[in-house]
Amino acid sequence: LKTPSKPAATSQLVLTERQPDCQPLTTPPKPKETPPADPWTPTSNLKMLISAASPEIRSREQRRQLSDSSSEVLQTKLCLQEHILGDEYEKSQPSRKEKSLGLLCHKFLARYPDYPSPSQKSYICLDEVTEELHVERRRIYDIVNVLESLHMVSRLARNRYVWHGRHNLPQTLQALKKVGEENKYIQQIQMIKKREYEHEFDPDGERNEEMASSFGSSEQSEMSFVELPGVEFRAASVNGRKYKSLRVMSQKFVMLFLVSTPQIVSLEVAAKILIGEDQLEDLDKSKFKTKIRRLYDIANVLSSLKLIKKVHVTEERGRKPAFKWTGPEVLPNTQDTKLEATSTACSPPISESIPSKEQCSKALFPSKGKQNFTRHSSLIKLVKSIENDRRKIQSAPTSPVKITASTYQSLPVFPNTIAQFPAITKHQLEGQSKTAEEMQMKCALSSPEAVPKPEPSQQPALSQPLGVCPASHSSVPPVILPHPQSGVSYAIYLHPSQAHTVTTYSPGFMLQPLPCANVTGIKSNNAKVLNKITTEEGDSQRGTEEPTKSLAAEERPNTKSETSSQRCLKRSQALPENNLIKRRKSDEESFDTSSAFFPSGYLIPLTHCTHGNKAECSSKEKAGVCSLQHTAYSSPITGVIPMPASELKTVNIPAFHITPLNIMLSPNSIAAAPVLSNSCLNSSSTSSAPNPSTSALNFMLQHIGLIPAGVQVPANPVLQHVPVSSQSENISHSSGSTNMQEGKPSAPKEPQEPQAVTENFFRTPGGPNTEPSLSVNSDGTQRISQGTLYIPQRKLEVSEN
DNA sequence: TCCTCCCGCCAAGCA
DNA sequence: TGCTTGGCGGGAGGA
């Protein structure tokens, strides 16, 4: 039965009308002799008319205070039928748009308060809803499933749901964001975009294989449902279908927004990620189309909830539908231990012995809060702490988008970022010839995913647009740690987010020499390449509308999250469900194994840094060291690696407490900060800034327990030669997240010296995303002048229509 | 022409 | 066994 279209004006009237009180009209019994397929028979026609016009009829009845006796109604209908014929009838039919799921969802939501009183539970009876909204049940399921994914409703029983409203939304979004980060969706997005571009030139390429390798084996990515305390998930079917459910898809879709910066996700990318996470064989076209369909369904509901808004992103490849997150900003999770999502996947847990920061901290400090969270596999991944750390010290290896420094500086949070930016990158640049720089850039861009293997000898290319040091680093100083064996010094970055996480002493901890990163702007031709595959977003959006997001973009760099071995480990972290005790036990067991893999130590040597060595990089790339996977997700900082316990032998760092900083520190809280190499340092002689003194170093090392009191670390020639820019003085900034002093690039005095070191590490003249230009001072030293800001974000043009 | 997504078939699984 | 739930994809309306 084809439904003729109806003019918007008429149908709009019908649709905007809400009939909260009116019971649906009862359709007169249909004469048996009426052929149901014929729309123009009086009876069938009448039926359709009733369906289409009943709101009007009812409102008319209300206005006239007519009785709703069926005979009168029928009369009215018949009367209406007389007048609405042919085209009129067609016009009376709601258009397709007006039957949309989004509109239906609006109606559905209008029935319930956003924030229902906790004492007054609203129950949803599907039968009632379908009757009152005049929709088939199937559509209600679509809505309810999405709402369920956000814990706005939960299933109570057959046909019956409880309405929670938006009470749980912040919590849910926070949990989803966390899971999304753990799942490294941002990296997957980057990978997909890269693949898209590559596929343009290699349509017959091994796309699926690449995708397969990108996402790992299908078993890696079991679908799981993130639950919240008190919102139990009771799917009607506990079968495998549950894991393909719209609920899970919806959650993952939301996750993509929450982890993306800007928070715009194209359907295509979302579908690919969902497919990639699902089954690799789903990569055929029909599956893709199906996913897209479902995403539209979900998007319609989310749009009704005003969580997302449809936009279009225009790329060189064309205009793509996308959605932009318009929901509440999800702040960083402050209750990690509470947000324990549980995998409800049907796949069996592989291992219970994977430690994680949460597990460690939970073991030590069991949360007093709600513990009803079910466990999500992705939350208990071995490399969690690695990823968190990486995310903060990496940036997306994407094409830069120019914005002016002034624009950038206008951002309210910019000063913080400036303060965080490692001045070391500047020095490194200073120490580089342009040729070397270009070579590095080419190298890094041609293989941006070149992830350094944890071999000390390796010299991974680091192509990192300036200014990607995460804001969260602003207040935590790196520790300069000499390594007597290798003669290499290291910077240890203490991650603030981990500062409060107390973990136990991890016995084997060695500072592993890592190649120094080369930090350069992106100038190679590949920048173009990357640009082409990127989505677009107006700079204005970044700069004015969502400044924090702009910065957050740099906090969520395009980092290769894990090697395949890590994925295996990650995969193996799936834990059994439903038993808190069991979980606790497994947590403990997992914790015991932490010595087998010590994921959070990121160390960058102060020596061994060479400037981008194109030849080396290229050869490694050819040799497969710089695999695609690695490239896309690798740390631009380079040399950020997890360290197996087997390599952690030399220096034991117990859990300790940095009194001056009031930071609880553990080995898991150690990450690397980019540090100049000797060569870098030697070649770069911007000398206006103070060097950290040996006494300061000793002070800090003693305080943090790296060396016993009384022991002095000899003056480190490397450190002494660290040139520190004084140009950062020009940058106003505010810190404040710790009790550290800030903004004194002048010669530090104890005990402020370590802070001064920090300052110097995280400052740069032009802010985090400045592409510096090298100039030569009168004394022959090189300096970086503030230049155009380069945002390692994709060029994005968004149109909302 | 392509995007969007309604619509309903039909299978899984529950009561 | 009937009903609920929901995956799925055809195909039509709309841009």
TrEMBL record:
<dbReference type="GO" id="GO:0045892">
    <property type="term" value="P:negative regulation of DNA-templated transcription"/>
</dbReference>
<dbReference type="InterPro" id="IPR015633">
    <property type="entry name" value="E2F"/>
</dbReference>
<feature type="compositionally biased region" description="Polar residues">
    <location>
        <begin position="770"/>
        <end position="788"/>
    </location>
</feature>
<feature type="region of interest" description="Disordered">
    <location>
        <begin position="448"/>
        <end position="469"/>
    </location>
</feature>
<feature type="domain" description="E2F/DP family winged-helix DNA-binding">
    <location>
        <begin position="96"/>
        <end position="165"/>
    </location>
</feature>
<keyword id="KW-0131">Cell cycle</keyword>
<comment type="similarity">
    <text>Belongs to the E2F/DP family.</text>
</comment>
<feature type="region of interest" description="Disordered">
    <location>
        <begin position="534"/>
        <end position="578"/>
    </location>
</feature>
<dbReference type="InterPro" id="IPR003316">
    <property type="entry name" value="E2F_WHTH_DNA-bd_dom"/>
</dbReference>
<feature type="region of interest" description="Disordered">
    <location>
        <begin position="725"/>
        <end position="788"/>
    </location>
</feature>
<dbReference type="GO" id="GO:0010604">
    <property type="term" value="P:positive regulation of macromolecule metabolic process"/>
</dbReference>
<dbReference type="GO" id="GO:0090575">
    <property type="term" value="C:RNA polymerase II transcription regulator complex"/>
</dbReference>
<dbReference type="GO" id="GO:0002040">
    <property type="term" value="P:sprouting angiogenesis"/>
</dbReference>
<keyword id="KW-0678">Repressor</keyword>
<dbReference type="InterPro" id="IPR036388">
    <property type="entry name" value="WH-like_DNA-bd_sf"/>
</dbReference>
<dbReference type="GO" id="GO:0000981">
    <property type="term" value="F:DNA-binding transcription factor activity, RNA polymerase II-specific"/>
</dbReference>
<keyword id="KW-0805">Transcription regulation</keyword>
<feature type="region of interest" description="Disordered">
    <location>
        <begin position="1"/>
        <end position="44"/>
    </location>
</feature>
<protein>
    <recommendedName>
        <fullName>Transcription factor E2F8</fullName>
    </recommendedName>
</protein>
<feature type="compositionally biased region" description="Polar residues">
    <location>
        <begin position="725"/>
        <end position="741"/>
    </location>
</feature>
<dbReference type="GO" id="GO:0045935">
    <property type="term" value="P:positive regulation of nucleobase-containing compound metabolic process"/>
</dbReference>
<keyword id="KW-0238">DNA-binding</keyword>
<dbReference type="InterPro" id="IPR036390">
    <property type="entry name" value="WH_DNA-bd_sf"/>
</dbReference>
<dbReference type="Pfam" id="PF02319">
    <property type="entry name" value="WHD_E2F_TDP"/>
</dbReference>
<keyword id="KW-0539">Nucleus</keyword>
<keyword id="KW-0010">Activator</keyword>
<feature type="domain" description="E2F/DP family winged-helix DNA-binding">
    <location>
        <begin position="241"/>
        <end position="327"/>
    </location>
</feature>
<feature type="compositionally biased region" description="Basic and acidic residues">
    <location>
        <begin position="539"/>
        <end position="559"/>
    </location>
</feature>
<dbReference type="GO" id="GO:0000978">
    <property type="term" value="F:RNA polymerase II cis-regulatory region sequence-specific DNA binding"/>
</dbReference>
<keyword id="KW-0804">Transcription</keyword>
